[in-house]
Input
Amino acid sequence: MTDQHAQHYAAIKDVVLTDFLDKEPETTFKASDIWKDQPAIVVVIRRPGCPFCREEVRIIDDHRELIEKEMGFRIVVVLHEKLGAATFKHDYWKGGETYFDKSKGFYKALGGGKLRWASIDQLIRPSLWFNALRNLRSGVRGNLLVGEGRIFGGLYIVRKGDEGIAYKFEETVLGNLAPISKVLEVCSQVSGVDLKDAEIQKAKGQEAQVQERADAAAKAGQTECDGDVCALPPSKL
Output
């Protein structure tokens, strides 16, 4: 485990999470309980209604049987607000484990101790517009204005017990997705379960589709740009 991963692990292991959906009464627990007995993937999403977040968990869900049943991982989603959580869990995450991070501890860990907020210039960068157009082509829908969607998320792969973090992905551009082939590669290394060629090709195929949609969006949507800022009108979405 690298020094940076060790710092991230120290920051997330004692974060208090709340199990609140389909649960009466709500219960709380430390994040380390998730990977106490098995390794885990923790998907830290920006907003339950975010179409990019829904797109990402759909891709991960396509590999759920491999990751959970064959590799022995738990996969959980962490969110910082409850608004829209039930729809997210049942319609896009297929009932998977979903927990509330009231303190935003996972989000602060990804930001090196503080929340990482998308700045105003992020909203006018071509990368965001192209990601939005890419998402439209994926067929996964969401909403744009319900809830707080400016806090960057990411993904952690955590080894069993106190062995620490094996991999982290930090969202740096709104709509960027964790590369599923890398996620599976690390899960394979941690679990000792070899990936079959078909599984590797499926993951790479999904990444290729994402890239193709992004390239098509860039080709269709880009207008006049000044450096990294594009004058792409909302009508293009």
About this structure: The longest helix spans residues 197-221. Confidence is low (pLDDT under 50) at residues 222-237. The two ends are 42 Å apart (CA to CA). The chain has one domain: 1-198.
